[in-house]
Write a structure and sequence with these properties.
Belongs to the methyltransferase superfamily. RNA methyltransferase RsmG family. This protein is an alpha/beta fold and about 230 residues long. The chain is built from nine helices and eight strands. α7 links the parallel β5 and β6.
Amino acid sequence: MKLKEIDSGIVANLIDENKEKLMYYAHILAKANARARLTGSDDPIEIFDVHVMDCAMALPLLPGNAWVVDVGTGGGLPGIVWAICRNDLSVVLLDSIRKKCELLSDMIQHLGLKNVQVCCGRVEEFALSNFERYDVAAARGVSHLGILLEYFSPLVKKGGRCLAFKGPRAFEELREFYGREGKLGWSGLEVWKYDLDERELFIFTWQKSRDAEMKLPRRVGIPEKRPWWR
């Protein structure tokens, strides 16, 4: 498997063009952490350097004028970062915890973002009413890689793609099902490598090339209890 390199020049330009708003987001996210644990830090500088910068690395991988769903968004990472930097995107922030969703709605209002909406619910239930609606489904810091592929499949239209932010341990997860993801309609795996804050990080992407061979979505909780590849 050959690792691909992200165009860091595109990332740097988009960050420079939107730095003031991205930093403001980091500050309001830090304040929101006092009310609900949305991300691992309440220091806005650390949030910017670690979390905002990480999310921005995927910007060159997103198609133009795309409908995007951020699964398990937490504090809006990566969805809010993408919406700030790319006003051609229409972004849905999906989370199952109502308190987080309320805080996300407040943050979006403060940021004045018109291309973002918040949906509160479990991904399996959300997929029933949003079947194959999105060009891109993404997640950062959420679940096993194989389970993410099941979550993403019913959300993404054929010809769309999914993105998963992961660390080096994801290659162990990948080995559990590699070569069988066609069962969910996925093909064309690409792994994008980048370094951030002395950490080696990766974005795993697949294309939705055909219908899944199994009926999706399954009931809430079943993807974790009975992984599709076992």
